[in-house]
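Could you help me review a protein record that somebody else here produced? Do not assume that whoever made the record got everything right. The record follows directly below this note.
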Amino acid sequence: MSTGKPSSLPDIQPSDRACKRKRTARMDADFDFTGPAKKTLRTRGTNRQKSFNGSANSKLKSRRQLFKSNPIKISPAKPCIRLETRYFHRGIWYQIGDIVSLTDTDGDEYYAQIRTFIIDSHEDAHVVLTWLVPTVEAKGKKFEASNYVIGMEEDIPRRIECVAFYARCPSDYFRPVDSPYTVGSWIPPESL
């Protein structure tokens, strides 16, 4: 008996092991397969788990599921700006065409006209300016619209906190005198 197995284990053939695994407490002869199958009242374990998680019946849901909500996917905020013709800031309605003053670090005061308002996605207001250049007749620090001419147009917006309201003025007041057209006088060809 030198099969390489310890002597304490009984000699069982592999076919006997397979038979023992397949046997149950009841033999096939105990069952009657001729009549209709009787349904059991108890659900299987796998079905029971599905009913707790996926069933629409709220009585079968677990307590944890009652307080959970489905996550909502939100899209990232889109960077957007909008252009406005007027804006309310510190108790004053600023409009396109208004004259504003800006003070530099030396305390000198400069004047500009508002071209447009830019409001970003955080509701921060910015203004785009057209600088007003003083003529030879401009004397002193007092602003008179007749002594200023239109200057450079800025492309970079400035925060509205940088400017201070000075006077109301039409948006086309400082247009060049020899301009062949006026601001806002263009008529589309379809309406002619």
About this structure: The longest helix spans residues 45-54. The mean pLDDT is 73. The first strand starts at residue 82 and ends at 84.
